[in-house]
């Protein structure tokens, strides 16, 4: 194996080293990314390349690993096909850049799907719900409320500025949210459906008789 590698020319050696090392790191990165492993270290490295750390990231650690992996294997394929050195380098660089675009797009859409499932407490403002665990008056004791947020019922921590405690079963409305995600609620009434008054239901003649009485 070593004899075979030592007998290679300089350019094939470079491509083989880049392809093998890149493939090993690429496999580890993909397994960690999609199997729910600890990716904090990878995220930290990505943030070094992108100061904002959000949005569409073209230059990141994961994308660079993908670039070198495809760069190496496409270069070997070109050499094996008998292409010239300059054409091999051009094709391998373009292939690596295309891989970076694919990976950046993939992780961008994955992050969007993740964000869409993340609870944004601000979306609970103006929601009407019910007290699940009694809330102490004037923020003296935290309770819980059941409210519909982002299309599903959730039981969330809540406080109130009301001077009376809000007992279990009371109907509340979310008026604000603290910076750490605690709802500020106030007691309200159940939504009342529009209904006609008795006078409106009576014939006009009977209405006049009632008013005369």
Summarize the structure.
By secondary structure, this protein is an alpha+beta fold. The chain has helices at 2-6, 10-34, 40-49, 61-80, 85-116, 198-201, 204-212; strands at 128-133, 143-149, 152-160, 171-177, 183-187. A five-stranded mixed beta barrel has the order 1-2-3-5-4.
Strand portion: 15-25%
DSSP strand count: 5
Mean pLDDT: 78
Count of domain modules: 2
Shape: rod-shaped
Order of helices and strands: HHHHHEEEEEHH
Sheet with the most strands: spatial strand order: 1-2-3-5-4
| Helix percent band | 40-55%
Total of DSSP H or I helical runs spanning 4+ residues: 7
Low-pLDDT regions? 47-54, 192-202, 205-211
- Report the span from N to C terminus: 113 Å
CA radius of gyration:
32 Å
Category from helices, strands and their pairing: alpha+beta
For the largest beta-sheet, the strand count, sense and barrel status come to: 5 strands, mixed, barrel
Which features characterize this protein?
OB fold (Dihydrolipoamide Acetyltransferase, E2P); alpha+beta; five-stranded mixed barrel; 213 residues; 16% strand
Structure report:
By secondary structure, this protein is of the alpha+beta class. It has 2 domains: 2-116, no CATH class; 121-187, OB fold (Dihydrolipoamide Acetyltransferase, E2P) (Beta Barrel), CATH 2.40.50.140. Helix content is 49%, strand content 16%. It is built from 7 helices and 5 strands; from the N terminus they run H-H-H-H-H-E-E-E-E-E-H-H. The protein has a 5-stranded mixed beta barrel with strand order 1-2-3-5-4. A hairpin with a 5-residue loop joins strand 4 and strand 5. The protein is rod-shaped. The termini are far apart. The relative contact order is 0.08. The model is unreliable at 47-54, 192-202 and 205-211 (pLDDT under 50).
């Amino acid at each position: 194996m070593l004899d075979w590698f030592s007998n290679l020319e300089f350019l094939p050696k470079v491509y083989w080293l880049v392809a093998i090392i890149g493939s090993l790191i690429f496999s580890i990165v993909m397994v960690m990314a999609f199997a729910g492993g600890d990716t904090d270290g990878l995220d930290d490295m990505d943030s070094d390349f992108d100061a904002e750390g959000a949005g569409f990231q073209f230059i990141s650690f994961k994308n660079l690993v993908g670039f070198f992996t495809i760069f190496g294997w496409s270069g070997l394929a070109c050499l094996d096909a008998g292409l010239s050195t300059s054409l091999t380098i051009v094709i391998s660089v373009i292939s690596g850049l295309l891989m970076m675009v694919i990976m950046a797009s993939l992780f961008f859409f994955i992050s969007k799907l993740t964000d869409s499932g993340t609870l944004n407490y601000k979306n609970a403002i103006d929601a009407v719900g019910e007290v699940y665990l009694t809330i102490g008056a004037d923020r003296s004791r935290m309770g819980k409320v059941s409210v519909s947020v982002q299309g599903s019922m959730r039981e969330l921590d809540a406080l109130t500025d009301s001077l009376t405690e809000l007992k279990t079963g009371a109907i509340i409305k979310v008026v604000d949210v603290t910076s750490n995600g605690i709802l500020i609620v106030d007691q309200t009434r159940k939504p009342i459906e529009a209904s006609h008054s008795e006078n409106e239901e009576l014939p006009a003649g009977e209405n006049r008789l009632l008013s005369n009485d």
